[in-house]
Design goal:
The complex is a heterodimer of chains A (510) and B (152). Chain A has 510 residues and is mainly alpha-helical. Chain A folds into 4 domains: 1-63 and 218-265, no CATH class; 127-205, Zinc/RING finger domain, C3HC4 (zinc finger) (Herpes Virus-1); 285-356, no CATH class; 369-500, Four Helix Bundle (Hemerythrin (Met), subunit A), CATH 1.20.120. Chain A is built from 14 helices and 12 strands. In chain A, a hairpin with a 6-residue loop joins strand 11 (313-315) and strand 12 (322-324). In chain A, helix 3 packs across helix 4, helix 11 runs antiparallel to helix 12 (441-461) and helix 12 runs antiparallel to helix 14. Chain B has one domain (5-142): Ubiquitin Conjugating Enzyme. In chain B, a hairpin with a 5-residue loop joins strand 1 (23-27) and strand 2 (33-38). The longest helix of chain B is centred in the N-terminal third of the chain and has 13 residues, at 5-17. The chains are: A mainly alpha (510), B alpha+beta (152). The interface between A and B is medium-sized, with 15 and 13 residues. Bound molecules: zinc ion (6 copies). One zinc ion binds at residues 149, 151, 153, 179, 181, 184, 186 of chain A. Chain B: It comes from Lipomyces kononenkoae. Chain B: This is Ubiquitin-conjugating enzyme/RWD-like protein.
């Protein structure tokens, strides 16, 4: 699939809308041996797109295997030991090779691998041992099957199996399942687990290993959509880049999310501001009441205080600061003029009231952006409901109007674009909240306004009576193309601005 | 009935025939709950002359899985003051959680707790005691303790 999807100019030449499946091609697809379709050379990434690919569980398994083989051949160790080493080093080849070369024995020891591994590799065996008593279950009957790692901490087979099942199934452990012996740090490796565990447990173990492989790898991330088993590989973005790119990726399941933080698509706002914004919205969820005239903020901790009695001596429930309700000054400065404030103009009171005014102004500023942010979140839901109802009616209409399923797809496309644009708009407001005004921000605001208007116009079309809407196909398609185009323009400009350091923030971003 | 009765049977007879100093079985009528009384043997002024009561609760899978262990209050038995022991009796000690190994026993756990008390000179609760106790799960095993510095 090409990304003609993003190029709405040619829809009227009869090309299909396919932006739901849009895939971001890149020229660096060379290393994915046989993965998915080949991208045309000409496919250029837009400024707000990042090259990425979708990996299936089998792909992950294969990558893991080839990494193990590669390291095993370099170090001349068994695959089992190398797996334990790689798990210990969180799949970081370079760090493993570097440290292993310096101190092979120490590293084996730390990772929980017996030093007499390998070349003269000992085979794990489940066997009876004469005169044996299991320290876990205290069983000592003759012929009892037993197992031990290289450390010879021997336990009966049943206990070993129970122990491993518990670790894998109940504790979700795979990386570091140690010998049950007292303070023994030898790790039960893949071979040991395969030998001892039941099939279902072993399969679970392999799944867990796969998970750590993805979790430990900076360039891999699981798709967060529920029940989705794909992972995304994105080589061009690392944590340090997240101040200047918003790496939105799309999974094969259709879900769009941020590769940097795993949250749903939040372009154009960078991850760190998204996190701050979400935190702020949570903290300020009571803001509506906050502004009421009957409350004041504690001058120390800014907690909201409601006056519910006649006494002016206030004690903040949160930080215990004592102050005067009338002048907001420190109570300590009130000396003996208890319960009778005459200090309205004194220093601490004036400063404190100043701060209150500032804090209210900043609150109002926040609410301005928050309301717009929340409005798009809410509207996206309403749009979707409206579309679903429309779709239902359209389906009913098909039989009478003679329109085919394909012919009503423009509405599905329009709805999808609408959803995506609201998502984008929502985050433009969070972004704008933190943005320092400079002469670069005007263009951003203009783009935001244009997209906003276009989105509302498209949204309005959905409210038309169904009979009328059926006759508006061209209008809807035009509007859809226009809206999508506005979104791209906005994203392109903000992405370039991020890259070029054009945006300044009111908060420190680390 | 736990699956490992033979093991618990042996532990009980060991505890009774070979008791460690300051550790005694108060009640072990079944293989579900045991009550163990412990005393701190050196003359640590915080605990001198006092006896504390530990409750061990075993699951089906003990000793593969750690027992649930906590101090309980009863007549003449208080919760010892200690920066890793909450006032509801929950104990923040790694052998009861991530540090558990199936060859630990009721006896060895009791001794770990005994020495944890012996080495303490701070007459205080964990800093988050009030918050923890207010929202603590009934079983301390539901808590994912961040183990405090074990040298205290
Ligand atoms: Zn056994
Ligand atoms: Zn061992
Ligand atoms: Zn997915
Ligand atoms: Zn993000
Ligand atoms: Zn306060
Ligand atoms: Zn006053």
């Amino acid at each position: 699939m090409s990304d003609a999807s993003d190029d709405f100019d040619d829809y009227d030449q009869g090309s299909e809308f396919d932006f739901e499946d849009e895939s971001f091609g890149g020229s660096d697809y060379g290393d994915n041996e046989g993965f998915e379709e080949v991208k045309p050379e000409s496919t250029k990434l837009k400024a707000y797109e990042v090259a990425h690919q979708v990996l299936s569980t089998a792909d992950i398994q294969q990558r893991q295997d080839s990494q193990i083989s590669q390291v095993a051949s370099i170090l001349g160790l068994s695959r089992e030991s190398v797996t334990v080493l790689l798990l210990y080093f969180k799949w970081n080849n370079d760090r493993l090779l570097e440290q292993y070369t310096e101190d092979p024995e120490g590293i084996l020891n730390k990772a929980g691998i017996s030093a007499d591994d390998d070349s003269k590799k000992r085979e794990y065996k489940i066997k009876p041992v004469d005169g044996f008593m299991c320290d876990i279950c205290c069983e000592d009957r003759p012929g009892l099957m037993t197992f031990a790692l290289e450390c010879d901490h021997r336990f009966c087979y049943d206990c070993y199996k129970q122990y491993i099942t518990q670790k894998i199934m109940d504790e979700g452990e795979s990386r570091n399942i140690q010998c049950p012996g007292d303070s023994c740090s030898l790790v039960v490796n893949n071979e040991g687990i395969r030998l001892i565990a039941e099939d279902r447990v072993y399969r679970r173990y392999l799944t867990l290993l796969n998970r750590t492989f993805v979790q430990d790898n900076e360039h891999l991330r699981w798709c967060p959509a529920p029940n989705c088993e794909y992972a995304i590989k994105c080589d061009d973005v690392s944590t340090k880049d997240l101040k200047t790119v918003v790496p939105t990726v799309q999974c094969a399941c259709g879900y769009r999310f941020c590769f940097g933080c795993g949250l749903a698509d939040h372009q154009p706002c960078i991850c760190v501001l998204v996190k701050k914004w979400i935190k702020k919205c949570e903290d300020d969820s009571e803001t509506a009441n906050w502004i009421s005239a009957n409350t004041k903020e504690c001058p120390k901790c800014m907690a909201t205080i409601e006056k519910n009695g006649g006494c002016n001596h206030m004690t903040c429930r949160k930080c215990k600061y004592e102050f005067c309700w009338i002048c907001i000054g420190s109570w300590a400065e009130h000396g003996t003029s208890w319960y009778n404030c005459s200090r309205y103009d004194e220093k601490s009171g004036v400063e404190a009231r100043d701060n209150q005014a500032k804090s209210r102004a900043s609150l109002e500023r926040y609410l301005h952006y928050y309301n717009r942010y929340a409005n798009h979140e809410q509207s996206a839901k309403l749009d979707k409901d409206l579309y679903l109802r429309t779709e239902k009616k359209m389906t009913q209409l098909q039989s009478t109007s003679g329109m085919s399923w394909i012919e009503v797809q423009y509405l599905a496309q329009a709805s999808a674009v609408l959803q995506q644009c609201r998502q984008t708009l929502k985050w433009t407001y969070a972004f704008a909240f933190y943005l320092e005004q400079n002469n670069q921000t005007h263009l951003f605001e203009d783009n935001q306004k244009d997209l906003e208007m276009a989105v509302e116009q498209l949204s309005e079309l959905f409210e038309k009576p169904i009979q009328e809407l059926a006759g508006l196909k061209v209008t809807v398609m035009d509007k859809t193309a226009y809206v999508n185009n506005r979104r791209q323009i906005l994203l392109e400009d903000t992405a370039k601005g991020l890259r070029d350091g054009r945006w300044w923030y009111q908060v420190e971003i680390k | 009935m736990p699956g490992y009765t033979k093991r618990l049977g042996r532990e009980l007879s060991d505890l009774k025939t070979n008791p460690a100093i300051g550790i005694s079985v108060f009640q072990a009528d079944d293989f579900r709950i045991w009550l163990i009384d412990i005393q701190v043997m050196d003359n640590n002024p915080l605990y001198v002359g006092k006896t504390f009561r530990l409750q061990f609760r075993f699951t089906q899978t003990y000793p593969i899985e750690a027992p649930e262990v906590q101090f309980i209050r009863s007549l003449g038995r208080d919760i010892p003051m200690h920066p890793h022991i909450y006032s509801n009796g929950h104990i923040c000690l790694d052998v009861l959680g991530s540090g558990w190994s199936p060859i630990q026993t009721v006896g060895s756990v009791s001794m770990s707790i005994q020495s944890m008390l012996a080495g303490n000179d701070r007459n205080e609760r964990p800093p988050d005691d009030a918050r923890y106790v207010a929202s603590a799960p009934i079983s301390p095993k539901q808590t994912r303790f961040v183990y405090h510095d074990d040298n205290v």
